[in-house]
Write a structure and sequence with these properties.
Layout: H1 2-25, H2 29-39, E1 45-49, H3 51-66, E2 71-73, H4 76-79, E3 92-96, H5 105-114, E4 119-123, H6 129-133, E5 136-139, H7 155-175, H8 179-184, H9 190-196, H10 199-202, E6 211-213, H11 218-228, E7 232-236, E8 242-247, H12 248-256, H13 265-268, E9 276-277, H14 282-291, E10 296-300, E11 306-311, H15 312-317
Parallel strand pairs: 1-2, 1-3, 3-4, 4-5, 6-7, 9-10
Antiparallel strand pairs: 7-8, 10-11
Helix pairs in contact: 1-7, 3-7
């Protein structure tokens, strides 16, 4: 039984991959025209479709919106009962219908034409009413659905999803849409936290900041290490500029060499030590800590003055990395 199920699953994928390749091979200037319509759109891109086309349309709208092309989904049935008012004269409508003969089109297309709203058709029927009314037609036609009865949209659904991704990625790359812009539409995720937060937003401050003066003793540094639990202490001069760092490792090495706790920390510290600029992106700070094989670092301003401290745990707690 398991063998036949595996065979069915592989056959499904084989059929869908074959149809996807056929679609890729016949891509032509219609994709360019569709992209140009969306690039020139002064309003928003409105995606619409019935049934499974609608489900995929919602995903396409979300992909466009998160990659620099303002877009939203309107259900065709709801459009005929008030939601058509959401579509403005500056918008472009992308309608998905494999047959191109969805009943709702009979009422929607004339209204869009009357308002001068261009339509991009994603369809498998170049002779359909949808294709005839569209400014641009994207052909998702298939020779064979993966459904053995040829009824459930499978290969055609995959083609629809792929052409939507092709549009979104082509527009994204043409616009030069970068990771920071992407993060602004995903502020709740780890990418947004890494790119939108700066070191000064997540660093330790005030009483949680491990700091001693250069003339203090190794014992003072040890007590500060214990108090803050950061794994390092920033050693500062009279102007609060970081002269070096004293870490748990520095303490062990100092004692192993036979030195005493009463000696100056300035002799035992690592100098100049690594420090993080407060204006850096949090993601860049995480990469720097990994690159230097350290878990924590003091944070300084443009003049090298101590303003905070940061370790890997702080970054992870902020959802970074």
């Amino acid at each position: 039984m398991s063998d036949i199920l595996l065979e069915y699953a592989r056959e499904t994928l084989d059929i869908e991959i074959t149809e996807a390749r056929r679609m890729r091979d016949r891509l032509d200037g219609s994709v360019t025209r569709a992209c140009r319509l969306l690039l020139d759109c002064r309003g928003k891109v409105v995606i619409s479709g019935m049934g499974k086309s609608g489900h995929i349309g919602k995903k396409i709208a979300a992909s466009l919106a998160s990659t620099g092309t303002p877009a939203f989904f309107v259900h065709p049935a709801e459009a005929l009962h008030g939601d058509l008012g959401m579509i403005g004269s500056q918008d472009v409508v992308v309608f998905i219908s494999y047959s191109g003969r969805a009943q709702e089109l009979r009422l929607i297309l004339p209204l869009l034409a009357e308002s001068g709203i261009p339509v991009v058709a994603i369809t498998g029927n170049a002779d359909s009413p949808l294709a005839q009314a569209a400014a641009c037609v994207l052909d998702i036609g298939v020779e064979r659905e993966a459904c053995p009865m040829g009824l459930a949209p499978t290969s055609s659904a995959v083609n629809t999803l792929m052409i939507g991704d092709a549009l979104a990625m082509a527009l994204m790359r043409y616009r030069g849409f970068d990771a920071e812009q992407f993060a602004r539409s995903h502020p709740g995720g780890s990418l947004g936290a890494s790119l939108l937060n700066r070191v000064q937003h997540v660093m330790r401050r005030d009483d949680r900041l491990p700091r001693i003066n250069r003339q203090d003793s190794v014992l003072d540094a040890m007590l500060e290490l214990s108090r803050t639990g950061l794994g390092l202490v920033a050693v500062c001069d009279a102007g609060n500029r970081v002269a070096g760092v004293f870490t748990d490792g520095d303490l062990r090495r100092w004692l192993v060499k036979g030195h005493g706790l009463g000696e100056s920390v300035g002799q035992a510290m690592t100098q100049p030590g690594y420090r993080l600029p407060q204006e850096w992106r949090a993601g860049a700070a995480l990469a720097a800590l990994h690159q230097h094989h350290i878990t924590a670092a003091p944070v300084v301003d443009a003049e090298g003055r101590l303003v905070g401290a940061l370790n890997l745990h702080d970054l992870h707690q902020a959802g970074i990395g």
